[in-house]
Amino acid sequence: MIYMALFGTSVCGVLGFEYWQTARVIAEQTDTTIEVETQGLAEHYREFGLAQLIFVIKERARNNPNLQSIYLLTTPEFKLLAGNLSAWPDQAKGEPKWINFQIETTDTNGKKVERPARAQTFILPDSFHLLVGREMTERQKIQALITNALIWGLVLTLILGMFGGFLMSRHVLSRIEAINRGSRAILDGDMQRRMPVTGSHDEFDRLSANLNAMLDQIEHLMSGMREVTNDIAHDLRSPINRLRTRLEVTLLEKPGAETLEKVMHDTIQEADAILETFNAILDIALAESGVLRDKFELVDITEVMQDAVELYEPVAAEKNQTFDCSISENLGIQGNRNLLFRLFANLFDNAIKYTPDKGAITVDVSQDKNGVTVIVADSGPGIPPEQREKALQRFARLDSSRTAPGSGLGLALVAAITRLHNATLKLEDNEPGLRVVLAFPQNK
What we know:
It is built from nine helices and twelve strands. The protein is α+β, with helices and mostly antiparallel strands.
């Protein structure tokens, strides 16, 4: 109804303006015709004199017996000289002006009727009075015809507008109700339900597509949460059980100081491993939440990479591994320094862990028009192509026996930090070994 009120007001305004413009043009055309004819008769009087003007007016009056065109010429005392009016109108006396008055004519049945007329008065030299005008019935008929057409056009427009508004409302409400039904089904527990998409690519389709993408993401997160819960239970149960068993056996055996010290040392290492796993899980959750993106700053990735290399070069040296580094200077990206350091540290830790003694680790950091590229490659066993996607998941262990050290969270944390920085991560074959390629986008 609000739409119809606004629509009807707009249509009335447009049609009213159209009527006003049309009536104004018709009136101006009538007045212009009268003025031109008046000026022509006055010029004729100046050139040929009064007698010739009387002749011309009589001829024109004879050709207009129905007073469609009105002519009247009088003496200074308003005595009739020529024309098709019987007397000078009272309202036309005085200074020259435009007048609207009534004239008496005969209709087709011979009956006397009064009709509206409009005329202009003019004073000729020697004070003769000239009146030229037009009978306005035809103009009024045209205006009435236009008025009726506009009224019917307005009525038809309102009827069609109401019908169209009703259909549009039904369509809009049906689309909204479809989304409401889908929402209610999801609230009732049907998490596989999705909003309908018609393929029209209109606003409702885009809304449904966004809602479906959001639901897919929620389902993915819920599935990931279930997997993480299961993985935590599986991966932490064993070390916690070992920790409890070790302490229980120690209490039963009542060992000496040296044995007790070793047990305590092993217990602390086991507890540190458990804490490291929990810290990694928290870091992944923090990175995936995206809350740190608002606190990004310009980070010198060259400096961060060099710090990570300095930290892990001694560790690699213990296994007689070589670090071959090619790091460009002054490479800046928008990001979080601490998380970027964790990212590179995890890559180096994995490379050192899985690269055999006397192996090689190469690091390359460069920049092109697309952004900064970081490549970390090793000469270890690598990851088969069919398992590379799995290796980026939480608690992913390619060692099915899970006897190798680690929690399986290293590459998952790398992937989470990469996504947080809108970068891309690829695992490739280094022939032999693993080649990790990180591409950070150009700063904007």
